[in-house]
């Protein structure tokens, strides 16, 4: 007996519309989920969850669907709306502004910021944040986080400047293998064509941004907005005077942080001290 397909509700959300259109184009092409899986290189189960709006589409799926169905960027345009639904409401305004950023300055005290996280590092953070979360829920959170990294790619990537506390480099998250991968991935960003990454040494002592993470996004219209985040809350700051004070605080930390060459040397030294995991 063939299982009955779940009814879709494309008018409920952008994610539902994405899934409904994916099913519509697939059926118009006479393709089963198994056949589509072979073309776009995602499992049948994963594609089924995207069709029923149970999963956020991964960042590279839309281009593959557009190529498969000849839809001229249709799924890419839908994805820009659907991917925001993987984030809680309080982050969506931030995402909308972040997508318009021409430059971003971030300070991160404890973990590597989301724009530079690897898939396994991000997954480890979400797992420890909510150990009882279903695997599918964590998958969606990881996909949504990685999708933000699109602003650092393409023909006109945003310029990124990051100051990390030493603890964000030395704290092992997800085990040595995951941390090896994460730290190696940071090295090209230390002094890249559109990036600068510096580590602030513990010897600097106390400073005004120790309470949480801070991101400053300069938008395409020249204005700058700030976003600060603690353990459970985030706050978007658009008041010019408050943003100015946040910018000054970041400037001070950048001045006291290690140079790019010293930062790369420090990351490599931490990599050398990390144990290697051996699998039988």
TrEMBL record:
The residues the entry assigns to the signal sequence are: none
Location of the HTH cro/C1-type domain: 22-75
Q: What PROSITE patterns does the record tag this protein with?
A: HTH_CROC1
Q: Which CDD domains match?
A: HTH_XRE
Highest taxon in the source lineage:
Bacteria
Protein name, UniProt field: Helix-turn-helix transcriptional regulator
- Gene source species: Streptomyces synnematoformans
């Amino acid at each position: 007996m063939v299982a009955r397909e779940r009814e879709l509700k494309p008018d409920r959300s952008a994610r539902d519309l994405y899934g409904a259109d994916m099913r519509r184009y697939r059926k118009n092409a006479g393709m089963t989920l198994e056949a589509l899986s072979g073309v776009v290189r995602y499992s049948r189960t994963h594609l089924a969850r995207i069709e029923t709006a149970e999963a956020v589409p991964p960042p590279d799926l839309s281009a593959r669907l557009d190529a498969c169905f000849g839809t001229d960027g249709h799924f890419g345009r839908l994805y820009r709306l659907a991917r925001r639904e993987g984030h809680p409401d309080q982050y969506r305004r931030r995402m909308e502004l972040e997508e318009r950023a021409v430059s971003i300055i971030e300070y991160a005290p404890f973990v590597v910021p989301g724009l530079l996280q690897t898939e396994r590092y991000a997954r480890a953070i979400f797992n420890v944040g909510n150990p009882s979360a279903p695997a599918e829920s964590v998958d969606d959170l990881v996909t949504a986080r990685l999708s933000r990294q699109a602003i650092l790619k393409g023909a006109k990537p945003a310029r990124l400047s990051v100051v990390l506390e030493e603890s964000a480099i030395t704290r092992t998250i997800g085990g040595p293998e995951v941390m090896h991968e994460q730290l190696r991935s940071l090295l090209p960003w230390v002094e890249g064509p559109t990036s600068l990454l510096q580590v602030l040494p513990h010897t600097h002592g106390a400073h005004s941004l120790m309470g949480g993470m801070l991101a400053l996004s300069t938008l395409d219209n020249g204005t700058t907005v700030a976003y600060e985040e603690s353990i459970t809350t985030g706050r978007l700051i658009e008041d010019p005077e408050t943003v100015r004070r946040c910018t000054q605080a970041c400037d001070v930390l950048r001045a006291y942080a290690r140079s790019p060459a010293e930062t790369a040397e420090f990351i490599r030294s931490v990599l050398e001290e990390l144990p290697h995991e051996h699998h039988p």
